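Technical annex, item 7. During the second reporting period the consortium partners agreed on a shared format for inverse folding records so that results from different sites could be compared directly. Each record opens with the tokenized structure and is followed by the designed sequence. A conforming record, contributed by the partner at site C, is shown below for reference.
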């Protein structure tokens, strides 16, 4: 929701989709770079201090962005960097907790699917709410609501100490080195999927604006989450015998295939149908 809020707020203030895209891209890329750093720190010192510190940095960045946009372009970009650096990695930390709470692979697969379902509910409501507040209420309210939801989630998880993984001190050499080839392939896949999600927000807002239906941008994004929610129910309900890496390969390929017809969309309805089909590949991935 933060990415969409940034796009809508910056475009509303500067009337430039180019600059809105740049600011959103800076935020998303910085968040992607900071994510493994936050994960490393969480492993070493625990999730709570990382969540509280990161969320404070995130809040400061969003506040600076709201006050600087349209006035100081360089400060707006710096604010996006600060917000991205502190963007709470709540989802990743929740999945880490599931890994410790459900060691059985079948139970863990179902747990991940269930968690994905709750994520999609947020992704259905969030874009619609952010778009409505930005376009129909007070423009800064959209991004403020997105940031507020992220902060509440981060602080709520930080207070849930009972489910937090125990911090273990590990000496060098206690674990085998990572398979760099496999890790590299995973990073490439993650970057590709991230580009899809990151670019979809600015492209959908621009497309619906061109069609004279900008207020529907949130609904189009929400429809993709409806498809993902449906897929999450299906995957979570069945006992999968396939390895997660096999599912990742399959649904990443399906995601790529689902993107091919989208440039052919000429109406908002056609784009919405295409986004629903794309959404079917998200939760299982």
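Designed sequence (site C submission):
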């Amino acid at each position: 929701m933060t990415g969409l809020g940034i796009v809508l707020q910056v475009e509303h203030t500067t009337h430039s989709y180019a600059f809105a895209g740049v600011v959103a891209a800076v935020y998303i890329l910085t968040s992607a770079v900071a994510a493994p750093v936050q994960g490393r720190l969480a492993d070493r010192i625990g999730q709570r201090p990382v969540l509280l510190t990161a969320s404070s940095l995130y809040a400061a960045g969003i506040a600076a962005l709201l006050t600087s946009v349209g006035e100081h372009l360089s400060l707006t970009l710096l604010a996006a960097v600060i917000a991205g650096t502190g963007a709470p990695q709540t989802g990743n930390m929740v999945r880490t907790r599931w890994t410790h709470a459900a060691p059985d692979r079948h139970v863990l697969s179902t747990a991940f699917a269930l968690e994905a379902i709750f994520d999609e509910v947020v992704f259905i409501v969030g874009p619609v709410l952010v778009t409505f507040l930005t376009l129909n209420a007070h423009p800064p309210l959209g991004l403020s609501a997105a940031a507020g939801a992220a902060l509440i989630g981060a602080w709520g998880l930080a207070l849930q100490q009972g489910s937090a993984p125990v911090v273990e001190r590990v000496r060098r050499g206690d674990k085998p080195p990572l398979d760099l080839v496999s890790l590299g392939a995973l990073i490439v896949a993650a970057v590709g999927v991230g580009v899809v999600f990151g670019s979809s927000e600015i492209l959908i807002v621009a497309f619906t604006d061109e069609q004279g239906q900008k207020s529907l941008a949130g609904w189009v994004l929400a429809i993709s989450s409806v498809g993902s929610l449906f897929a999450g129910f299906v995957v979570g309900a069945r006992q999968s015998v396939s390895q997660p890496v096999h599912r990742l390969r399959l649904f990443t390929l399906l995601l790529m295939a689902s993107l091919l017809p989208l440039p052919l969309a000429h109406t908002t309805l056609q784009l919405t149908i295409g986004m629903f089909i794309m959404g079917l590949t998200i939760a299982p991935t």
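Residues 110 and 164 are 20 Å apart (CA to CA). The chain has a mean pLDDT of 87. All partners now use this format for quarterly exchanges.
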